[in-house]
Structure formats: structure tokens, C-alpha cells
Amino acid sequence: MKFIDEATIKIYAGDGGNGVATFRREKYEPMGGPSGGDGGRGGSIIIEADRNINTLVDYRYTRTFRAQRGENGRSAECYGAKGEDMVLRVPVGTVISDKASEQMLVDLSEHGQRAQMASGGKGGLGNVHFKSSLNRAPRQCTKGDVGEEFELYLELKVLADVGLLGMPNAGKSTFIRSVSAAKPKVADYPFTTLHPNLGVVRVDTERSFVIADIPGIIEGAAEGAGLGHQFLRHLQRTSLLLHLVDIAPFDEAVDPVYEAKAIVEELRKYDEALYDKPRWLVLNKIDMLQESQEVVKQFVKDYGWKGRVFAISAISGVGCKELTYAIMQHIEENKREAEDALADTGLVNESAASKTVTKKDD
Predict the structure, then answer these.
(1) 101 assigned to a ligand binding site
(2) Does residue 230 sit in the same domain as residue 298?
(3) Is 2 annotated as contributing to ligand binding?
(4) Has 328 been labeled as part of a binding site?
(5) Which InterPro entries does the UniProt record give (predicted)?
(6) Is residue 29 part of a domain?
(7) Any binding-site annotation on 142?
(8) d(Cα 155, Cα 48) in Å, to the nearest integer?
């Protein structure tokens, strides 16, 4: 299945049914009063997050969606049936924005989360509503309201704890194959990865995290060069970035330090918030070096890196287990800090509420 992570669609909620003007015509009531029923409400457009879907390909080719119109009212005060709502299912992690204003409307980040994007029109009133002591035979009725319509922009941002960042052929796909059950394509040419891949890394039976591999980024990506800039959005939800660097390139003319700096600069140009995320340096392919420790020390010195550094070989698995345990520890510490902060906020709110109550009692 082709991976699609953005789409533009038009949605039309159903119009309300019309009210009618009818009168009772029965055997013993040949000239009866008004009996026109109301029209039914039009169907609404609802979008739901579904974890069983992982692409927006369904919305790339079918771009217009219309909910059912409400039925018209009938005689004998029969109300028209409500139009059936239309439910559109999207992958978990889909962000929905208004195409015209570019304003974000909803972020569907949990399975089963729903959002009503367009409301159906109200049904029209039948002539029974216009009966009065002065007007015993009203002939007026109203039409149903028009349903809402919008043009929406759907953008998928995958949900992952860790994101892989690096040049093409840095070994990102090999690394994710080494530490998870994901099987992305691996080859000895650039841009092997054409769309994001997700892998679940299990540290033990009860602890795991999700890692995202995106196509490699090259210099000039922020201006549209290469493929990686199209998928940088998938790193925005991650809590940690792993910057993979090929420390033993086949081409001796390639400078790993220059390429590493170029990647980080592209990240900064694309999104400052993404640039400010916690980032670890992972030097890959140390199995191809004679004096790997010396080369690693020299690289860190030339690069001027102050953060955490890991030297691994993704193809042989050297250093991968230590890296995954460190990532798991980092994620758990972040969750603990977030829970503590939330608990502190709750305590502050609770104490403020108690003060308010005391003040009222006084």
C-alpha cells in the first residue's frame, strides 16, 4: 500500500429536510386543521481516529464526502427521518486543519477519538407550528437549513517516542531492523527509505518504546532538496532524536563532521522546536574502523558535541543493546517528571480551591 501522509478533502454535511403544509382530511374531519410535520435534520460529518489504519491513501483519490440529507416532513404530523451521519476514519496521529485559514481544528492522537467537523442542517418546520387562535389554517412552512461545508487539510504525524535523523545511507534502516521487528528496505544506495517506518523496541517483557525511521535528509532539505523534508513532521511528536552519523563512509572525500553539522542546520531551518528537542549523537559503523575509539574521540572534538554519544555497529549489533536501555531509561524519566509536574499542579489547584471555600465560610 502506498504511504500517504497528507490529503485535502471537501466535506458537506447533509441539508435539513423541508417542513410541509398539509391538513387533516378524514371521513369525519373533512376540513381539519394543519398536520404538516417537520423535516429531519441532515447528517453530520464525523472524523474518528483508528489505530488499524496507517495511511491517508483513502483520501488521496476520493476527496469529496457528503452526508445524507434529512427527509422532508409528511402529513399526519409525521416528522422526516434524520440523515445518517458519515464517519470518516483516519490514522491515529492525524492533525486536521481548515484549508482556507490554516487554523488547526483538532489533533486526533488517541484511538477512538472523534470530532464532528461539519454539522447537518436543521429540519424545516411544518405548518402545524404556525397554528394560532387567529390563523386556524396556516399554509406557511419553512425549508431545511443548509448543512455546513468545509475544505480540510489532513496531516499525519506518526506517534513515536524516538526519531532517527541522518543522511541517506547512515544506517538508520539497518539500526531499526537490528533493535525491532520492523523490516524496512536496506540497500547500498541513497534514499532506500521512501516513507517512514515504525518499529517497536522491546527492552523486556513489560517495557517497550516506538522508534520512527524517516527518509534521509540532505543539505538544502529545508528548501525542498531530497525526500526527508517531506517527513520531518513525523519527528515532531517524539521526545528524543537520535542523530545517526556514518563515521566510516566509503567515499574518503566525504567529511562526516561537515555532514553532521549540515543535518542539524537543516533541522533548525525547518522547525526551531524540533531543533530544541533532546538529541543524542549515535556514531554508526564502528566495525569498519581499526582504531574506533580514537576516531570517535576525534569526531566528537571536531564536531564540538557536548551531549551524550554512543558508538554502535547497527549491522553487527555492537552497542545497540546499551543504546536501547539508555533510551528506555530516558523515556521513563521523562514520564515520571511529567506525572510529578501534573501532580504538583493538581495540589496547587486543590489548595487554591480550599482557600476559596474557607473564604466563603468566613
Answers:
(1) no
(2) yes
(3) no
(4) no
(5) G_OBG, GTP-bd, GTP-bd_Obg/CgtA, GTP1-OBG_CS, GTP1_OBG_dom, GTP1_OBG_dom_sf, OBG_GTPase, P-loop_NTPase
(6) yes
(7) no
(8) 14
